């Protein structure tokens, strides 16, 4: 897993989704989709590394109130698509699943059940992106990004254990991220919260990844068959 980590200057939680085996005997394509935290902290060298990796499109899952100015100019050749994943107008959902729970995979299955259209919209943007790599990010690159990555990897038949391992790597990188800026790592609190619900992060990821046929799920959210095919073709070697 660690060979997929991308050490672009300004990033601490970026990695390529390539190199994972699928049930079809194929592997996920290198440099097709990258996951990360908000790229606003990238230096000029970091942006250069991103472009050299082949990234051409950035999918931003953060809300309007989370937008931060870029520390170094964002290359004009990049296309940024802003698609906030969380619909906070649905107060019933967030009253139940917000707060600390939304910083864990505890809410993943419930989110997928509630928001198929929103999930499909993000996946459609990835499917229809211009040729080249796509970077998907939220704020810290763990929870919202992790949810979309789960859908993508489940769609192409990646082993749920590999999907869980990929999620766990975010905690490793997060700990380093927090140490860099002098903050405490929230991983122990997250593990404690999940344990209070009688489960583990790995089990939650496995359950969410196997809870539905992802192609059918995305179609139910409005993603056309052509985009489902394009998404699979983008992700697979």
Considering the chains and any ligands shown, give keywords for the structure:
237 residues; alpha/beta; Protein-Tyrosine Phosphatase, Chain A; five-stranded mixed β-sheet; 10 helices; 5 strands; 45% helix
Folded structure, characterized:
InterPro entries: Prot-tyrosine_phosphatase-like (IPR029021), Tyr/Ser_Pase_IphP-type (IPR026893), Tyr_Pase_AS (IPR016130), Tyr_Pase_dom (IPR000387). Belongs to the protein-tyrosine phosphatase family. The protein is of the alpha/beta class and 237 residues long. The protein has one domain: Alpha-Beta Complex (Protein-Tyrosine Phosphatase, Chain A). Helix content is 45%, strand content 9%. It contains ten helices and five strands. The protein has helices at 44-52, 91-97, 108-114, 116-127, 143-155, 160-180, 187-196, 201-210, 214-220, 225-235; strands spanning 15-16, 33-36, 55-60, 79-82, 133-137. A five-stranded mixed sheet has the order 1-2-5-3-4. Helix 4 packs across helix 9. The chain is globular and about 45 Å long. The mean pLDDT is 95.
């Amino acid at each position: 897993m660690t060979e997929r980590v991308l050490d672009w200057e300004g990033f601490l939680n970026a990695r390529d989704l390539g190199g994972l085996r699928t049930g079809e005997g194929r592997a996920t394509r290198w440099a097709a989709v990258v996951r990360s935290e908000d790229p606003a902290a990238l230096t000029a060298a970091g942006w250069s590394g991103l472009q050299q990796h082949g990234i051409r499109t950035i999918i931003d899952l953060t809300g309007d109130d989370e937008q931060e100015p870029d520390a170094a100019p964002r290359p004009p050749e990049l296309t940024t698509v802003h698609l906030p994943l969380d619909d906070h107008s649905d107060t019933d959902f967030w009253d139940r699943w917000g707060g600390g729970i939304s910083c864990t995979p505890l809410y993943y299955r419930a989110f997928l059940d509630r928001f198929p259209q929103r999930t499909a919209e993000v996946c459609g943007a990835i499917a229809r992106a211009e040729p080249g790599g796509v970077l998907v990010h939220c704020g810290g690159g763990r929870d919202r990004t992790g949810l979309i990555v789960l859908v993508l990897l489940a769609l192409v038949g990646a082993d749920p254990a590999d999907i869980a391992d990929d999620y766990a790597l975010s905690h490793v990188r997060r700990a380093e991220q927090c140490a860099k800026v002098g903050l405490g790592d929230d991983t122990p609190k997250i593990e404690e919260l999940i344990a209070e619900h009688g489960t583990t992060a790995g089990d939650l990821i496995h359950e969410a990844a196997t809870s539905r046929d992802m192609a059918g799920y995305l179609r139910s959210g409005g993603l056309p068959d052509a985009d489902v095919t394009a998404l699979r073709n983008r992700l697979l070697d």
